[in-house]
Automatic annotation (TrEMBL):
It comes from Parambassis ranga. The keyword Amino-acid biosynthesis does not apply. It is a peripheral membrane protein. One of its GO terms (biological process) is intracellular protein transport. InterPro entries: AP_mu_sigma_su (IPR022775), Coatomer_zeta (IPR039652), Longin-like_dom_sf (IPR011012). Gene3D superfamilies: 3.30.450.60. Its main location: cytoplasm. This is Coatomer subunit zeta. The lineage of its organism: Eukaryota, Metazoa, Chordata, Craniata, Vertebrata. Belongs to the adaptor complexes small subunit family. The gene is copz2. It holds the Pfam family Clat_adaptor_s. GO terms for cellular component: COPI vesicle coat; Golgi membrane. Residues 12-150 form the AP complex mu/sigma subunit domain.
Amino acid sequence: MDSASLEPSLYTVKAVFILDNDGNRLLSKYYDSELYPSMKEQKNFERNVFNKTHKADNEIAFLEGMTIVYKSSIDLFFYVVGSAQENELMLMSVLNCLFDSLSHILRKNVERRCLLDNMEGVFLVVDEIIDGGVILESDPQQVLQKVNYRADENPLSEQSVAQHLTEKLALTTNVSFY
């Protein structure tokens, strides 16, 4: 094995993806452009991972020279992929942070429909945890604070743009002239 490939690197995560219970992609981010450069190769890899893991009760798998940690919830499968020599505990901390953050955003209703209804928040969470394959955060409370999400507030997606603009216009036109 090449000694350069064993040197420590900040680029820990190769990919993150979320699949539904049929193996269909709901979200995927690949951080190593050389790993699976085309969409076809990515989907083929995801299909192979899903076929190996969707009936297993484990939390870790090794496939195509990759270390894969995963977790399922109702009708979703969450995956974090690293290289073969990557520390499984680090990958698992990313997976747990992702799952716990999304669980909070989705109000403990981690299922396909809710995930699709809140995709903007899902992308924000993933981007706060990982940037270019580098783990930025593994504490769900810090991630939620950074995305500035509060469970008692209505996200913009629950309010149409027209409603939002109407409210802003109403606030700015309530000016009295003497």
